[in-house]
């Protein structure tokens, strides 16, 4: 599991936006890119080419779940 200390240091490599931990993924708080990075064996895979771009509605649901703004 990703510690809060590490989560506070990590950011989206594309936009430098904050990330939220959602199950086994780190999700960018950037509304434009909406990147989701997977975590494998407790190691975040922070490669843009291996991330996925979430649908806007899915991204909004995750942001609301974590108390982040969606606008």
Topology, please?
Layout: H1 4-9, E1 19-22, E2 25-28, E3 35-40, E4 43-44, E5 52-53, H2 56-65
Task: Considering the chains and any ligands shown, give keywords for the structure.
globular, 25% strand, alpha+beta, 2 helices, N-terminal domain of TfIIb, 23% helix, 5-stranded antiparallel sheet, 71 residues
Q: Care to describe what's here?
A:
The chain has helices at 4-9, 56-65; strands at residues 19-22, 25-28, 35-40, 43-44, 52-53. The chain is an alpha+beta fold and 71 residues long. The protein has one domain (4-65): N-terminal domain of TfIIb, CATH 2.20.25.10. A hairpin with a 2-residue loop joins strand 3 and strand 4. It is globular. The protein starts with a helix and ends in a 6-residue tail after the last helix.
The overall pLDDT, averaged over residues, is 95
**Count of runs of 4 or more consecutive helical residues:** 2
Cα distance spanning the termini: 29 Å
Low-confidence stretches: none
**In total, how many beta strands?**
5
CATH architecture: Single Sheet
- The gyration radius over C-alpha positions equals 11 Å
Derived structural class? alpha+beta
Summarize the structure.
This protein has helices at 4-9, 56-65; strands spanning 19-22, 25-28, 35-40, 43-44, 52-53. It has 71 residues and is an alpha+beta fold. It is built from two helices and five strands.
